[in-house]
Design brief:
alpha/beta, 3 domains, 343 residues, two-stranded parallel ribbon, twelve-stranded parallel sheet
C-alpha cells in the first residue's frame, strides 16, 4: 500500500480532497463574515491557503461578544482591546465595506487616538456601512469619516457630530441612526445634502437645530427625546410614509416656532403610519383644531397616540381632528397616561 492510501486509511485528507481548502472563492468571504472576528482569524491555521484569508474580509464586526472576551480577563486597555483591533486593522488587505464597533462603558479609554486611526483606515477602504456604538465618554467623530462618500448606512452612539466646514453631505447615504449624538456648532446654517436618504432616526440627541439636512427622498422618520428638534426641517420630504415622534415632557416650555396640525399634515401627502405622543400633539395646538382639514389624510392606515391624556382638552381635540380626517384608517392604538394631581 503506497503512502497516499495509507494516509487516507488512517483518516488523513490530502490537499486535493480537502473540501475546506478548496472551497470556491465566492463562498469563502461569506463564510468568514458570518464568524466572530476572533474565529475568523483562527481559520489561518486550517491550511497554507487559508493563512491570510481573513485579511480580505469585507466586514469587520467588534461587537459585544468580542468585548466580553477582554472584560473577562481584564485585558481591555492598551495591551488588550485596542491592541488586538489595531493589529487586525493593520494586517487587513483590500476594501472594508462594513465596520461595526461597540465600546462598552466597562472599557475605559484614556484616549481615542487609536479609534481615530481606525477611522482613517476605513476612510481609505470604500466604507459602505459604519456602525459605531460608544458607551464610553463622548467621542468626536474625526474629519476622515466625513470623507467616506460611499457610505450607505451610518449608525452612531455617544458621539459629537461636527463635520468640517467644507463638508456638503453624503451623496449615497440611505439610512441614519443616531443615538445620544451632540451636533456641534460648526454646522450653523450649513446645509447638508443627503439626496438618497430614506430612513432617519434620532434618539435623545442634542443641538438638533444644527443638523440642517435636505433629504427629499426621506420615507421614514423617527424622533425620540430631542427637545430642540426643528421638526419642519425633517418634514420637507413629500415621500414620508412613516412618522414617529415622541418628545415627552421636554416639549414643555420649548421656545421654538409652533405650527399647526393642518400645516404639518399638508406636507405629508403620502403618510401611512403616524405615531406621536400627547406632548407633541399638544404642541401642535398653535391654532384651534378644525373639524375638517383642507385635505383628508387619505393614505393613513395606522395611527398611535403615546402618553395620551384624556383629561387634556388639546390632546383630545387634536386626536379627534386626525380621526375625522382619516377615511382609510385601519388601526388605532392609544397608550393612556393617568394624570396625578399633587396636593
Amino acid at each position: 500500500m503506497d503512502y497516499h492510501h495509507t494516509r487516507r486509511r488512517r483518516g488523513f485528507v490530502t490537499d486535493d480532497n480537502d473540501i475546506i481548502t478548496n472551497l470556491p472563492e465566492d463562498l469563502i468571504n461569506p463564510i468568514l463574515e458570518r464568524l466572530p472576528v476572533k474565529d475568523a482569524v483562527r481559520t489561518s491555521v486550517l491550511s497554507k491557503r487559508w493563512r491570510y484569508r481573513w485579511t480580505t474580509m469585507r466586514t469587520l464586526a467588534f461587537l459585544r461578544q468580542f468585548c466580553r472576551q477582554f472584560l473577562k480577563i481584564g485585558a481591555y486597555q492598551h495591551n488588550g482591546f485596542t491592541r488586538v483591533i489595531s493589529q487586525i486593522m493593520i494586517h487587513h488587505q483590500g476594501p472594508i465595506l462594513q465596520f461595526h464597533l461597540h465600546i462598552p462603558k466597562e472599557i475605559f479609554l484614556d484616549s481615542f487616538q487609536k479609534v481615530d486611526q481606525w477611522m482613517l483606515l476605513l476612510a481609505r477602504n470604500n466604507l459602505r456601512v459604519l456602525d459605531f456604538r460608544n458607551s464610553n465618554r463622548i467621542y468626536q467623530i474625526p474629519s476622515s469619516v466625513f470623507s467616506c462618500l460611499e457610505l450607505r448606512v451610518l449608525g452612531l452612539r455617544g458621539c459629537i457630530f461636527n463635520p468640517p466646514l467644507e463638508f456638503k453631505g453624503f451623496p449615497n447615504l440611505q439610512d441614519i441612526n443616531l443615538q445620544k449624538v451632540i451636533f456641534g456648532g460648526k454646522l450653523g446654517g450649513t446645509v447638508i445634502n443627503m439626496p438618497q436618504l430614506k430612513n432617519l432616526s434620532l434618539h435623545t440627541c442634542v443641538n438638533v437645530n444644527n443638523f440642517n439636512i435636505v433629504a427629499v427622498n426621506l420615507q421614514h422618520l423617527l424622533v425620540f427625546g430631542c427637545p430642540d428638534a426643528m421638526l419642519l426641517r425633517f418634514l420637507r420630504s413629500k415621500r414620508l410614509s412613516a412618522v414617529h415622534i415622541c418628545l415627552g415632557k421636554s416639549m414643555q416650555g420649548l421656545q421654538v416656532e409652533r405650527y399647526s396640525l393642518a400645516r404639518m399634515l399638508s406636507k405629508l401627502p403620502k403618510l401611512v403610519t403616524f405615531n406621536i405622543d400627547g406632548y407633541f400633539l399638544k404642541f401642535l395646538a398653535a391654532q384651534k383644531f378644525p373639524s375638517l382639514l383642507p385635505h383628508a389624510i387619505i393614505h393613513l392606515q395606522g395611527l398611535r397616540f403615546q402618553i395620551f391624556s384624556f383629561g387634556d382638552l388639546d390632546q383630545v381635540q387634536g386626536a379627534l381632528c386626525i380621526l375625522r380626517n382619516s377615511p382609510n384608517l385601519k388601526g388605532l392604538r392609544v397608550t393612556h397616561v393617568q394624570m396625578v394631581k399633587r396636593v
